[in-house]
Specification:
Radius of gyration: 34 Å
CATH class of the largest domain: Mainly Beta
Structural class: mainly beta
């Protein structure tokens, strides 16, 4: 074969190969691969690898936070989108199938839940469906139920229980002199939960209840200490930390939660007791006057609301209270 003939044959081979490549590209456009077809169908159906975007009703399951068992008490739940109510129901057995049937995946809502005095507002995002035939979404919510509470106080010696009164001048407490006299006596406050597997779910916001344009925040645990003077000249004691007519203080969310383990022991994180202190300044009390001190343990107290109105908000629940007197 001549050199010239070889060059011609080589050129023909290149042209043929280019033609095959172009034909292959055109055929891919006309007949896409199986993977491309699947991806297109997936986009059209609204299904992703993680699930399907759907509009469906929701089944809510309500479990006790500390037992993981269904809450059998009566429950009332109301769902909000912003400040607009979209569904509500009262039910038992810890299960609710919503009437609203068009909750869409990825949309966000709030749900205010009450069971007797137990309250909480959950926020949730509608999940993806597992498949196209799923009849409803399912969401499980864990909620603590309120326990049974008591308050006890110890005198400034840290030992003697306060059962009725304390004399700031002589240090007499409950008729005995073991209590130290002080113009700023410090009392130990002991909060006790006497019911196993109970507590408070946590601090939350009422998204649909606005206060000064903002959602109302309700703290799970709060102490309110008030004072009133009786007898003789007006009593003038002062609660250290008081900013208005009363002392109001937030406690940790799970301060008195109580969880019993399967072996009967108490959980290290939920022993059912919280200890704090209360300091009074009695230097302003006139002679022979008496001050009545009331310590109230609240759940779901709106502190901003209380400070602005000198009264608790409608959601607040008194868990227990204790009253004693200081004399001068």
């Amino acid at each position: 074969m001549s050199k010239h003939t070889g060059l011609i044959m080589g050129s023909l081979i290149i042209v043929v190969l280019l033609g095959v490549a172009v034909f292959g590209i055109l055929m891919l456009g006309v007949f896409p691969s199986g993977n491309t077809t699947t991806q297109t169908e997936t986009s059209q159906t609204g299904c992703l690898s993680s699930g399907c975007v759907r509009k469906l009703p929701i089944r809510f399951i309500f479990n006790n936070l500390y037992t993981s068992q269904p809450i059998t008490d009566s429950i009332t739940a109301t769902i909000y989108r912003g400040t607009t109510q979209v569904d509500s129901s009262s039910f038992s057995r810890g299960l609710w199938d919503t009437t609203k049937a068009d909750f869409q995946s990825a949309d966000s809502y709030a749900m205010y839940v009450t069971s007797a005095n137990s309250k909480y507002e959950f926020t949730f995002q509608v999940p993806l469906a597992q498949n196209l035939t799923q009849p409803r979404f399912q969401i499980t919510l864990n909620m603590a139920l309120i326990g049974a509470y008591t308050i006890s106080l110890l005198a400034p010696d840290g030992v003697t229980p306060i059962t009725s009164s304390y004399n700031a001048t002589s240090g007499i407490c409950n008729g005995i002199t073991s209590c130290r006299a002080s113009k700023q006596p410090t009392f130990t406050v002991i909060l006790t939960n006497n019911a196993d597997n109970t507590g408070l779910t946590g601090t939350f916001q009422r998204i649909e209840v606005l206060q000064n344009g903002m959602p109302r925040t309700l703290v799970a645990n709060a102490l309110v200490v008030t004072e009133s003077g009786t007898g003789g000249a007006p009593a003038k004691s002062h609660i250290i930390g008081q900013t208005g007519t009363a002392y109001v203080g937030a406690l940790p969310d799970h301060a008195t939660d109580k969880q019993r383990n399967r072996d009967g022991s108490l959980s290290q994180n939920a022993k059912g007791e919280y200890v704090t202190t209360l300091v009074l300044d009695t230097s302003g009390m006139s002679a022979n006057s008496v001050e009545t001190i009331t310590v109230t343990y609240y759940a779901y107290l709106g502190i901003a609301y209380f400070n602005a109105n000198n009264t608790p908000n409608s959601e607040a629940v008194v868990l227990t209270s204790y009253t004693f007197q200081i004399a001068s």
